[in-house]
Amino acid sequence: MMTKPRMRIGVIGHLDYQLADRLENAGHSVEWRVPWEAVAEFDCLLLAVSAEDLPDVVARLRGRVRQRQIVIHTCVELGARALRELGGVAIALHPIDDLCAVGAEDELSETVATLLVQEMELRPVMVPEGDRVALGAALRKVVEVKQSLANLEASFESDGAYALFVAARNSTTWGYY
Q1: Averaged in consecutive runs of 10 residues, what is the pLDDT profile of the chain (177 residues)?
Q2: Domain covering 8-127, topology
């Protein structure tokens, strides 16, 4: 039986530990705080930075990325196009529960992304460049709503009021309140 290829993944930025755990559980080696002069030594670079910081990171990587080296960023708002100028296998990945928003520029990148996401036991969902900004805004709104609900839930002093809140939160008839 053929063994799956294992990668040495270098992280630039602040990776979500759940994503790092998934990569390690899939058999890959994840290394943190990669020095700029060592990026070519890795099979894959994972750029875990904000959408605002990604262009600066890409500029610093210009000329350091090997041809066909896998380069992944985790910004939901940006697709793989943000990495195009580096010349590697450009991929955008953003895990959301058991799904993963995927962006790829070509068939090779899409295949690599799909295999990696499936190895992490996530389901890949291809997200076109044009939908990424709206997806990012929607996800930020979901986080805000969840935080607001958690704050409200913690504020109830009586079990009765809490039970009514939970019933309303789970109701499909929100328009009646």
Answers
A1: 82 83 93 92 95 96 94 94 94 92 95 96 94 88 84 76 74 52
A2: Rossmann fold (3.40.50)
